[in-house]
Amino acid sequence: xxxxxxxxxxxxxxxxxxxxxxxxxxxxxxxxxxxxxxxxxxxxxxxxxxxxxxxxxxxxxxxxxxxxxxxxxxxxxxxxxxxxxxxxxxxxxxxxxxxxxxxxxxxxxxxxxxxxxxxxxxxxxxxxxxxxxxxxxxxxxxxxxxxxxxxxxxxxxxxxxxxxxxxxxxxxxxxxxxxxxxxxxxxxxxxxxxxxxxxxxxxxxxxxxxxxxxxxxxxxxxxxxxxxxxxxxxxxxxxxxxxxxxxxxxxxxxxxxxxxxxxxxxxxxxxxxxxxxxxxxxxxxxxxxxxxxxxxxxxxxxxxxxxxxxxxxxxxxxxxxxxxxxxxxxxxxxxxxxxxxxxxxxxxxxxxxxxxxxxxxxxxxxxxxxxxxxxxxxxxxxxxxxxxxxxxxxxxxxxxxxxxxxxxxxxxxxxxxxxxxxxxxxxxxxxxxxxxxxxxxxxxxxxxxxxxxxxxxxxxxxxxxxxxxxxxxxxxxxxxxxxxxxxxxxxxxxxxxxxxxxxxxxxxxxxxxxxxxxxxxxxxxxxxxxxxxxxxxxxxxxxxxxxxxxxxxxxxxxxxxxxxxxxxxxxxxxxxxxxxxxxxxxxxxxxxxxxxxxxxxxxxxxxxxxxxxxxxxxxxxxxxxxxxxxxxxxxxxxxxxxxxxxxxxxxxxxxxxxx
Length: 659
Known about the structure:
Strand order of the largest sheet: 6-5-4-1-3-17
Distance between the termini: 19 Å
Largest sheet: 6 strands, mixed
Number of strands: 23
Strand content: 15-25%
Shape: globular
Helix content: 40-55%
Structural class: alpha/beta
Radius of gyration: 28 Å
């Protein structure tokens, strides 16, 4: 049983038969810093959910991220039992094409559709498929594969971003992704994530101890101490966060976190707690001054954001445009309101009735949806796809662009604001007297000196207006006042940044700013043959065939686990033949823990030991697809060796080895 999980194919952010140029694969450059030219933060995120599923099922699994059509075709021809395709609504046409390619090039593979795009009404009739996975995916896949859905979760080890850069300066991977759980119970009517997960929260790690152990394991494996927390509202479970901080302080672990949170949860735990925890970035939905959601009621958002930035915590404030009450005047009230909060980053999203949400159901009932707008344009960063009483679709695109430009013109680049927040944090945290916060101050001071300060001369030189240039000059003076004169190393680094920035400015002026992610392939629990090939390419071996041995008297009980393929079956046969030739005892071979059986591997093994069939018994529980299919394909003369049973095998284990 083999599984392939794939994101949709590229290229991305181009006008072609499968997509639109406004639907970029870069989160910040697409919907946060999109109008900031060379100052825009550039990076790609992997398809985190696919990696989490792959880590938490038993079957040999490959994840193919950012493939081309050609690369996807080459992969599916390898003969996967299941091919999972994850997509969002704007990538509907790409998912449809990929399903067609599977039917054409791998007709025996079963197609699983997943992701937010599966909420499209009538999808069952629109895309070729065998299964649709909606909501939480790990338990769903475990049930599909005949595994225990409720066994504990294992967190994958992944960098949070790839190909990260700003002002043309390449930045090293400095954070790992951390996924404590999925979903959110707030159930805002426009939120497709909350509705996709049934308006509930599913924790993967329920305690602070579990999260702490995951962080330590990732640190030991990668050296990374910073984590991008993919959780819709991490602070909604304050007891977990408080236990995490307690353990960090006990063990001296200065982890840092970028999180999503609502205003009410920030108010509950307090800004100082976040600083102690090591939160360095917070994404918060401020939405609108006209439509006050429960999560923001009674909270002075501007004062909260000021306090967060004073403690060195960068803030992204997210607002919604084209609400029902917006006209061409009141929409600017909300634009000025969001920008006036003075956050490091601003996201403006168009109100988007996504399938599955309460907003979609409401607008569909009122006949407001523009059904002739293709799904490729349902991404919230160009034109609205519903009838608004005061805006045409073309006007919505212009107002959205103007909102981002207003933020950029008023506050300067987000990079400038990041540098300001960092030095404000150094000043504030230095006032704390306890040892923990002094250590936090030292960490932030090193980041300010090594990462932010060398950026400032280029920020000033390439400032796009006089206001941004004055802000940069004021900030440089503040850095000199707090940190002292720049060192020779900092001066040299600033020269390098200046050179990269000049090149990046030229790229943008020439219209060459688009950046495509490269294809990424990651494999779990591959066959021995594949793993050896991977080792030759410089990758490490993972799970092979595990042998659990119980040898008592004249009986050898051997339990197989992991993967049985032709290569390790040949090695195992030699060992079994030696035992059967040299000993008089019985051999009991259990197949219960096999997660994958390569075609003909079991048949070859049984054929070699068939002459000893009076002393050989093969037992299994008819649960997992891997063993079931291998048994079903056995010739009749070999099937007589098998004895299906329901009892679990003996658990005593003398040794454990690899074939």
